[in-house]
Amino acid sequence: MTLPRTELDMLLAHSVGTRIDLDPSSVARHLPLLGDVVATTANGSALISELGTYAEPTFAGEAFTVRPGEVNLRLSRSAVSSLIATAPDDDARQPAGLWMFDGEGAAVHRAHLISEPARLVVDTMQLAPRAPGTEARPGPAFPGSPDELDLLGLLDVVTAGDVELLGRLAPPVLAPCGVLPVVELLCLLCEHGVPVGMAVPNNGCLQSCVGWVDHVETGDVVGVVSGPTQFAFGPGDVVAVRVVRTHGVHGPVSTVLLTGVDGRCLALLGQLGLPPASAVTAWERMVADTFGDGADRI
Predict the structure, then answer these.
(1) Distance set, CA 86 to CA 18, 22, 95, 112, 190 (Å)
(2) Among residues 211, 214, 198, which one has the least CA distance to residue 270?
(3) What is the DSSP-derived secondary structure letter of residue 145?
(4) Phi/psi at 27 (nearest 5 deg)?
(5) Which of 5, 24, 162, 293 has the smallest number of Cβ neighbours within 10 A?
(6) Are 31 and 54 in contact (CB under 8 A)?
C-alpha cells in the first residue's frame, strides 16, 4: 500500500529545499527583513497574492493592525510547524521561495523571494537559535456568545477555522452559489473609491490587505486587482455568504464572509485595520443596499 503524500512531501519531491528549524516567533521577526516578496495564501477556493514587504506577522490573541501597502499575516502558531526554503528553478522560471506548512504537512503560505537581501536573510534564519517552549502557548479563548465577539475576535475565529462558532455568528443571506451581490458590492467599491479589506485564510494563516478596488473580473473565477494585490475566488465553491456584525473601532461594523461546503470561511471582505469613519459609513451603506433585509437581520 502506498501512503498518500502530503503537500510538504510533494514539494520536496519536485524542488530542492532546505528545512529551517526555527520557532514561530523568530520566523515572524525575520520575515520583514526579506525585502520585496510575492506573498500568497490560497485554500483551493480563494487566493490572495501581493507584491510587497512583510509587516511583522501577528499571532492569534495579539493585536493586529492591517497596514496598507504591506503584506499582513495573522497566524496560529501551529501553522508554522515546518519552514522550507526552496532554491531557484531556472527551468520553471521560479525564484527562490519560502514555504510554511502545518503539522499535517499541509501548505499554509508561500513567498517568492525577489529582493537582493533575501538570500542572506534565509541563511541567517538557518543559523538562528530556536527559542524553547514557544509552541506550547495557548490560543485565544473565544466567547460563548457571538454577541460578545469583536472584529479582531472574528478574524481569529476565521484563522482558526472554528466552523461551529462561524455557523452561529449569522444566518446565510444568500442562496447557494448566489455570489452575484458580492460581485455587485465589489463593483460599487470600485466605482465610488471606497477602501476595503480583503483576506483569505488557510490552515491557521490569514493574509489580508487594505486598499482600493481598481478592477473586478467575473467568470469562472471572480478576480480583483487592488494596487499590488490580486484577490480571487471561485464562485462555484461558495455555498453561503454571511454578513456578520461585530464591534469595530467606529462602532458596529459588517464583515462579509464567503463560506464553503464544510462551513469554513474561504474569503472575507470588511473594514480591516484602522479605517476612517467615512469609509466605514460608506461601506455600511453599500452592504445594506446590496444585501437588504439579510444584512438587517443580524
Answers:
(1) 6, 16, 9, 9, 37
(2) 198
(3) S
(4) -60, -45
(5) 293
(6) yes
